[in-house]
Amino acid sequence: MRSAERLIAWRYLRPTRGEGFISVIAAFALVGIALGVGTLIVVLAVMNGFRSELLGRVLGVNGHATVVAGPEGLADSDVLVTRLRTVDGVLDAMAYVEGQVMASGNNVASGAIVRGVRAEDLARRAVFADNIVEGSLARLDEGGTILIGSRMGQRMGLGVGDRVSLISPQGAATAFGTVPRIQSFEIAGIFEVGMFEYDNSFVYIGIDDAMRYFQLDDRVTAVEILVDDPEMVRQLRPTLTATVAGQGRLVDWQQLNSHFFNALEVERNVMFLILTLIILVAAFNIITGITMLVKSKGRDIAILRSMGATQGAVMRIFFLAGASIGVAGTLIGFGLGIAFALNIDSIRLFLEGLTGAELWSAEIRFLSRLPAEINPDDVTRVVLMGLGLSFLATLYPAWRAARVDPVEALRYE
Predict the structure, then answer these.
(1) pTM > 0.85
(2) Tens digits of per-residue pLDDT, 316-355?
(3) Using an 8 Å Cβ cutoff, are 298 and 409 in contact?
(4) Beta-carbon neighbour count of residue 123 at 10 Å?
(5) CB-hemisphere CA count at 13 Å for 183?
(6) How far is CA 109 from the centre of its chain?
(7) SS3 for 204?
(8) CA distances from 289 to 23, 110, 114, 284, 285 (A)
(9) Distance CA 203, CA 198 (A)
């Protein structure tokens, strides 16, 4: 691009008397591309953050693979845990007891899932060790103590030192029928992992208390396994299955949650396609604006050609005029998208305070905060797509400008 071509292209983009409508169309095209690029960056960042947060919470609580037993439970779980920890690619293994109960406190009762674990095993899980908001995790091995989620504590009005009763329908048979098992536990700590389901309905007690409560006689119901790379757990299945040696059934996280994460991926792709239409519409506005500019500048094109400008020079002038709109819109959208994605949760809190409406319900969307994770590959793809569509939209009107016959353009002037 010669300096004269850049100068002429810039002059054509500036609004002049009688051509204000063309400038309005160009402005709409710029705003459309900026909004499309910015919105795409924000949406993809939120979808990435949503998937990463859910994956981190779900796998942090449930492990990457689980050895599940039948109603009789797993015997010699400590031996199995030791064997699993020696497998290459396995970070940790943890035995636990799980059952469903009714939790009652302060005259409020609701269903809950009880997990009996050792305090040292739970302390190795960062999702718990780093998110104890009250009390102490270490007291779990004292016996008669319990950890509850923050949502359950708020709902029942309970705190550290209060007592919770666990009621199991699988009680002892008597002459008067089955009597539910009821046992009271002191709250030793409150955790908040940031996922509504776990903070509202999961409780943890010592593994010995759980074995006695569910009458398992030194057996556990499952063994959780953590691996180096959760995405590669399928490759470890043969080795893990051989290590388990028929003591239980091995189930990995992809089997348990595949439908959920596949649905997130489909939604992400659909949102990408839908929001791409915003950029496409803005690109059509560029075609309209540059085509009208070519029509209005017919005499100028003829004079330039008469003065010796080549068809390539004329084409570059109008290509530069249209491409400038696309580049400016893409850069503005890039800046806005990054700024919004980095501060999305603060913006949500501000809007909630301004409107008084709840924009992000943890009960519906599982997570207690609006996450965002900027992926450089996604941002690069969006920016390149915005630039590419802008350049393609400019080619045709620029080519038409280069084809203008100077004799015909000046005949009626």
Answers:
(1) no
(2) 888 888 888 888 888 999 999 899 888 887 877 777 777 7
(3) yes
(4) 15
(5) 21
(6) 33
(7) strand
(8) 8, 63, 65, 9, 6
(9) 8
